[in-house]
Write the C-alpha cells for this entry.
Amino acid sequence: MTDKKTYGRSRSGVELTEDVLKEMASEAEAGLDVAKLRRRPGRPAMGSAPAEALPVRLDPELRRAVDERATAEHTTASDVVREALRRYLKVG
C-alpha cells in the first residue's frame, strides 16, 4: 500500500494528488479553452468601469437615518448613499 500525498479535493470532489496537479499544470501550459471556463459569480458591474470604494465617516444620526431608509426600502445602506449622491450631483 503506497501513501500518496494529497492536497485536498477540488470543488467537484477530485482528490488533488501530485499526478492530478501535474496533469492540470500540463493542460494549463498547453493553453486553456477559455470558452470552457465557467464564469465565477461576483459583484455585478456598476457603471462603465469597476467601482471604487470611498470610505466616509457619518455621525450617528446620519448613519441611523441611512440605515432606516435602507430597511424601509429593502435595500442596503450603500445603495441609499449612492442614490442620494446621484440625485444631489445630478449624475446618472
